Amino acid sequence: MDSSDSIFSSKDSEQRWVHQITSHFEKDFRVDIFVCVFNVPNTTSVVKPECYTPQLIALGPYHHMRPELYHMERYKVEAVRNFLNSRQILGYQTLLVDKMKGMGPTIRACYHRYLDLDEEILAWIISIDGLFLLGLLGNFYNASSSKSTKLTHEMNAMLYRDVMMLENQIPFVLLQEIKKTLQLSFGEDKNYDEELLSMMKGFCNALSPLKLAQETQCLAKNNSFLHLLDFMYHLIVNNSVTKIIPNLPKAPEKVAPKNEIIKEDLFGNIGEIIEMGTQFGILSKILKPLQVIINLPWEKIGTLLGLKKLDKQNDSLIQEISIPSVSKLSKICGINFSHTIGGIRDIEFLEEEATLYLPVITLNNNSEVILRNLVAYESATLDSTLELAGYVDMMCGIIDTAEDAMFLREKGIIKGNLSNEKIEDLFNGMNKSSGTEGSKIIEKINAYYNTKPMVKAYLMVKNRIYASWKILTVVSMVLILLMLILQGFCQLYGCPRIFQQIS
Which of 15, 54, 248, 332 has its CA 20 to 30 A from that of 267? Predict the structure, then answer.
């Protein structure tokens, strides 16, 4: 068998696999741990693989041995040494590595992919990477610390992005054990779980694009989170309130010009056919009315109703839900946009107010990676409700242009230093992942939009005329060809009477 088609790289790999499988059938073997660090499917990562694969530093066994990342190993080891005292450094192998080695089955149970690593190598990886992550999170323990609120250095920004990637997660149960072991070696007897939670909460507060829930203590008691990304995910999804902010004064409604109400290039390449005919003087009068129709600004007209998407790179790979953009909802339907004081569970469209309430989202250079990995994790989780994916899909649907992003920024829904153009690229580059076409809110918005006279008029035109545009093109082409043949015949043999009648 070709080695590329097998999980085994050598005979030692095969023997290691036999040993691991054999241990599962031993009398005392029992691991009550669920898989929590998943592989990102190729169907998800194909559009932007750099958002799912570490670019600077590897944490955990999936990417630890990648040559292009291994230069950071010296940095990690130095950071770990600075975290320990001299006695702990000398006894590091006995203190932590042997502890992790004894947890080998637990470590392997946490990872979805088969780990073709020796027990001792795996123990060293987890102990170094886990302790490095604890040191990094320690910078966010004090919420008033400048380190916990400012991400000014590009290297730090890359580091934080890598830390939030799904395939780069260190399971919480391992971080707990490492921190507990260290604190006991320090002679400290305090609540290490509570301190670890505060560190993680500080880190998530600094990086999360959405506001987090405050109920961290109940999560700790139930051990209901599995790693840092899972922790952020649950704090985002569980952030909910039962009320929304008072209505903001509506801006004067802008009415779109009549010649920009409907947008669609209904007639395809008929214009080119007409130009062929009008090069010859005999057709100018016959085709002049049709030329006037073709010259209408159909390209601009279609943009307002969202009937034509802009071409994007990897467009064939990107699918969005069917919902009008912010500009169309505002200009055509007069829908107002306002922000809630809660989270994604507080999204609401109130028809009587013609207002769509959305949570505030803060976007910066780290946000795309974090959002993509949160959605990828949610999709990989069993029995997931795909709430976050539904929200992201809605944002991808309503933001088509930089003007849409600017509109939401003016409404206080979008914050952060990411430019409107980059926000457009972010949401237009994410694939539909939630199957939220049937979402009640989206159904309400689409139903409200489709009741508007402008939209009804377009749908009628589309159903009765647009469906037959290819037939019109063929008929026009045949007519032009016949006229050209007639003109050629007349130029060769002379047809003065025909020319006089036409003139």
Answer: 332
Helix 192-207 vs helix 172-186: crossing angle, to nearest 10? 130
C-beta neighbour count of 202 within 10 angstroms: 22
Residues 334-354 have pLDDT tens digits of: 899 999 988 999 999 999 999
The half-sphere exposure of 400 on its side-chain side, counting CA atoms within 13 A, is 22
Residue 494: strand, helix, or coil: coil
Nearest to 419 by CA among 433, 430, 409: 409
DSSP 171: -
Q: Is residue 200 classed as helix, strand or coil in its secondary structure? A: helix
Residue 175, amino acid: L
With a cut of 70, which residues of the chain have pLDDT below it? Answer: 1-12, 14, 21, 23-31, 142-153, 186-190, 215-223, 242-320, 433-438, 455-471, 493-494, 496-503
CA distances from 238 to 53, 213, 269, 369, 372 (A): 27, 6, 52, 21, 19
The Cα 382–Cα 372 span in angstroms is 18
Q: Which two tokens stand for residue 501?
A: 């009648």
Q: Which of 183, 163, 181, 38 is nearest to 100 (CA)?
A: 181
Closest to 178 measured CA to CA, from 88, 117, 108: 88
Nearest to 236 by CA among 217, 198, 218, 209: 209
Partners of residue 349 on adjacent β-strands:
356
**Nearest-angstrom CA–CA distance, 166 and 40:** 7
